[in-house]
Amino acid sequence: MIGNGKEQPSLDLTLDGIGPRHQQIERAIRGKIQTGAWPPGYRIPPEEELAVFLGVSRAPLNKVLNNLANAKVIIRRRRHGTFVSERTDNHAVIGIIDIRDKIESTGKAYSFQLLKRDLINGDNAYVWSDAPRSERLLRLELVHKANGASEVYEERLIRISAIPEVEFEPFDNVLPNEWLLARLPCTRLVNTIRAAMAERRIAQALGLAANEPVLISERKTWAHTEAVTWVKLSFPGHRNEFVGEFNPLEPLSKLG
Question: Keyword Transcription regulation: yes or no (predicted)?
Fold first, then answer.
């Protein structure tokens, strides 16, 4: 039950200093919820207390809390307070595969190589139906590596209208996924996993034979109502598998 008298969480939000203040606050609150520091059912500190602690007015804070409530991450109850939703399993960044973490967890050194960065018109983005035909998109292709060997091929489209500064980011030393998540919340995600034969250019980049299969993770993400990015990740099929586990009785300690 929401508001069941559990011990109050500590008020130790830390802002990352990237982007507008309200976006920093939203990322900080989401971080508390996603790591389990503020588990389902916890009463979030009162708005006026948060505003004083963060040194902001009530207006941007109220905007953040409304965004989180609309995304069903929190529940706001008049005269009772604001609580973390009892069902947080389908929010935030669940379903996003952290390739850097996946590689480093095996003890290997992670690196990536940017292969392509260009601008295209939305009417050429046949794979992404959510991209308006009249808009410009940033297209990226890169290879994720473990100990210098190619492991994952990434293709990505980003709507410039959703985050205009992306047009000028070279992505030569920062991963697109990490860059985006630091600036925009992921409030909706659709992820499809399937097997396929590797395209020639992808097989060559991954060091595969032309007829070898790959596992493909294709996802689309939104920030509130704005479609933000389309991503296709190709993994060599013979050395990868996807495993998922969900326990509704335990808070999420890590999101993959």
Answer: yes
